[in-house]
Amino acid sequence: MLRIYCVAGACLLAAAPALAGETIELIFVNHIQAEIVEQFVFVEREPGSGKVYRVTPADFHRYLDSPLYAAAEWVTVTPFDHGETGPYGRGPALGFSLRDWLEATGTATYECEDDIGVVNARFDGLVPNGVYTMWYFFLPRPRLDPGPFVFLDLPLGARDGSDSPFIADADGHAEYQAVFSPCLQMSGRQLDANLAIAWHSDGQTYGTTPGPLSTVSHLQIFVNFPIEGR
To answer: Which residues contact 19 (CB under 8 A, 6 or more apart)?
Structure first.
């Protein structure tokens, strides 16, 4: 059975979670597809200014061919506040355009049987040869919109982060699998459960945490798990 699930206004097609042993199919989206503000990469509106800004669903088209930058220092995560876009200090150039960043796609399947969970994922359009990690994260429900963004990140699989990393090939393709116990918790009335991948522009991973977001760790695409029992 298939149902439609939505992430912040973007509707996704996923298999309805039901009995143990069945498969949930998931489609990853970027921030713009989810109708929220891009958080972890930035554009310089005025070349040479040393100031960078976030892009929003309303203005990203004008910056598609603009080069992307990291922020010079950590920036508060505020995806639902469309007025909080900068300016911020410009960090290093990332070597590709916003168009390139938004071309990333991903699909995954999730299965749970005998309290053993398995995630198999496939990605395309990633940063070529990029170092990535997979994250299982929670948001409180209902969200305060555009209030403070509170979230809990856990590396998928082993809690020390050893199952989380993977590397894209020269064409930006990657396949990822994690097997773990216990099974994942689905979204519910109190918490949204999600998967996300983060690209690490410094080529490093950070074990139990995603690392310094906006400066060297950049969440690219994500997916919301459906509410259990729906």
So the answer is: none
